[in-house]
Write a structure and sequence with these properties.
- The protein contains 6 helices and 5 strands, in the order αβαβαααβββα.
- The protein has about 170 residues and is of the alpha/beta class.
- A hairpin with a 4-residue loop joins strand 4 and strand 5.
- It is globular, with a radius of gyration of 15 Å.
- It comes from Rhizobium mulingense.
- This is CinA family protein.
């Protein structure tokens, strides 16, 4: 058994193949997934030609220091917000050599949720150097920490592939 389920490996393999063919690079900015998106991509042979770098920014300080997320954004909207995800993607893109960056921030659980931001809420953003940007707000529900994280990886990889066609 591999580190990741077959559907995630298949999606990662498609990204590595398509990015290699197009001469593109990717970077990741991850909070609730803790590096799993980068891990899935680098599980594929040949990924070193495609994956520039990954930022694991679990704390607000890391988001600000490494990705340039504005402290005011975090105070006003919180780390788990569309605004934070967009700024994370922007920071990962412009603090790397990547052509496309994907960012995720959410509440994997089992604790940490609230009525306004429940467990299973994840904001994802993917951005390209052409200016194209995709945002998704996912409400996976309280399905378990590992399942929220894996569902987030699936969605992030899908968004990256979608951004290739925009």
């Amino acid at each position: 058994m591999g580190l990741f389920p077959p559907d995630i490996l298949s999606a990662a393999e498609a990204i590595i193949r398509d990015f290699t063919a197009a001469g593109l690079m990717i970077s990741t900015a991850e909070s609730c997934t803790g590096g799993l998106i980068s891990g899935a991509l680098t599980e594929i042979s040949g990924s070193s030609a495609v994956v520039d770098r990954g930022f694991v920014t679990y704390t607000n300080t890391a988001k600000t220091e490494l990705l340039g997320v504005q402290a005011q954004t975090l105070l006003r909207f919180g780390a788990v917000s569309e605004e934070a995800a967009r700024q994370m993607a922007h920071g990962a893109l412009f603090r790397s050599r990547a052509d496309i960056a994907v960012a995720v921030t959410g509440i994997a659980g089992p604790g940490g949720g609230s009525a306004e931001k429940p467990v299973g809420l994840v904001h994802l953003a993917a951005k390209s150097r052409t200016g194209a940007l995709i945002h998704r707000k996912m409400l996976y529900g309280d399905i378990g920490r590992s399942e929220v994280r894996l569902a987030t990886v699936r969605t992030a990889l899908e968004m990256v592939r979608l951004l290739l066609t925009v």
